[in-house]
């Protein structure tokens, strides 16, 4: 996945928290390219349990969550909140699916994306 984005040209990349639901936070990476916004997020696996634990961890982390949206597929960008955190980037696609991502600086992402939309 990342190799494809590197070829396209990554303009911004940041380690983020993906709020899959109110109680499910996944670690991931948010990428901005000239053509799209991509979130690659993974469940963090179970640690411990020796060899079995490491095999389970690999299986859990293999499945990728997130999105791969071309700019034409993005309906709107807005600022959300999660507890006291106000740096929540909310991206709504044309199907009215909203993705909530905790970023370091909401304004930076908003500015970059508004230039593309």
UniProtKB/TrEMBL annotation:
This is GRAM domain-containing protein.
């Amino acid at each position: 996945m990342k190799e494809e984005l590197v070829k396209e040209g990554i303009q911004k990349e940041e380690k983020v928290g993906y709020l899959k639901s109110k109680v499910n936070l996944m670690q991931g990476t948010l990428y901005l390219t000239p053509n799209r916004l991509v979130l690659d997020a993974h469940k963090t696996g179970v640690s411990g349990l020796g060899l079995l634990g490491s095999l389970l961890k690999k299986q859990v982390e293999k499945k990728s969550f997130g999105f791969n949206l071309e700019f034409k597929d993005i309906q709107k960008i807005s600022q959300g909140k999660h507890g006291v955190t106000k740096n929540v980037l909310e991206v709504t696609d044309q199907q009215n699916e909203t993705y909530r991502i905790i970023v370091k600086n909401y304004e930076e992402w908003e500015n970059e994306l508004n230039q593309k939309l």
